[in-house]
UniProtKB/TrEMBL annotation:
Cofactor: [4Fe-4S] cluster
Location of the 4Fe-4S ferredoxin-type domain: 1-30
Keywords per UniProt: 4Fe-4S, Electron transport, Iron, Iron-sulfur, Metal-binding, Transport
Name of the protein in question: 4Fe-4S dicluster domain-containing protein
SUPFAM superfamilies documented for this protein: 4Fe-4S ferredoxins
Pfam families named in the record: Fer4_7
InterPro entries xrefs: 4Fe4S_Fe-S-bd, 4Fe4S_Fe_S_CS
Molecular function via GO: 4 iron, 4 sulfur cluster binding; metal ion binding
Organism: Neomesorhizobium albiziae
Length: 64
């Protein structure tokens, strides 16, 4: 299962894009989005999902 970004809560700070080890997060249109085909939930890299860890707004990066 991939993660997703709740667009209405996203501050568009970009922190998640630079922390994503699989390069799954990109800015598209007016929002950051997570490509579910690329999202690995940081398995093999970290015990926690980096997007959720660095996001300044709780529960913005969540399981899809």
């Amino acid at each position: 299962m991939a993660f997703k970004i709740i667009a209405s809560q996203c501050t568009q700070c970009g922190a998640c894009e630079f922390e994503c080890p699989s390069g799954a997060i990109k800015f598209k249109g007016e929002n950051y989005v997570i490509d579910p085909d690329k999202c690995t939930e940081c398995k093999g890299v970290s015990d926690t999902q980096q997007c959720a860890t660095v996001c300044p707004v709780p529960k913005t990066c969540i399981p899809a």
